Amino acid sequence: MLAKRIIPCLDIKDGRTVKGVNFVELRDAGDPVELGARYSEEGADELVFLDITATHEKRKTLAAMARNIARHLRIPFTIGGGIGAVDDVGVLLDAGADKVSINSAAVRRPELIGELARGFGSQFVVLAVDAKWVNNDWYVHLNGGRIATDIKLFEWVKEAESRGAGEILFTSMDHDGTKAGFACEPLAHLSQLVQIPIIASGGAGTMEHFAEVFTTGQADAGLAASIFHFGEIPIPDLKAFLHEKYIPVRM
Asked: Active-site residues: which are they?
């Protein structure tokens, strides 16, 4: 069995790391460069860097900050936010990114997934999906959760895989920031539905939640923000806990 990955996520707004609950009520969580360097030293497997207002505010990803972060990292990292075309990706590669995350732009123009996969390889393309439970089903939301759609989560993820997405980053908007646990039921369904890795996001609050998302939720990676940013769960302690639970992790 492949090792499960622990991935801190840095949501960036105006050059600072922020974190909220259910995508709102954001509070400052620190300098992204300092946090990224700390996580690299603590043993995180990867890092995700998301400019959470780039699409909403019609800005491009903060490539200069990404380049600064890359100089302090020893682990792979993903950049997302404001990527709408193949031409947007070159600057991110130059900045040191290992993958790019696309979300709203891919929903609006699904062909973008295939264009990026053909241009750079499927392993480079992470499809981020923000979804919410509405009227007894999971529906995709855009622009940092601000815009609801009639697109169903499972249908969209299956289509994205067929178009060349190499990984899915699924965030449950209902669980985001609540620290009440991941959305394990839809995560398990996603893992059975597609052959590409699933990153679980939204709801991490305890070490047991990670054990649950890797077993019941069948996720390939667990992503979290505030519990890492505010020192609630040290990454070395989390990995030791998972190891004791016989869940494979890189120590």
From this structure: 11, 130
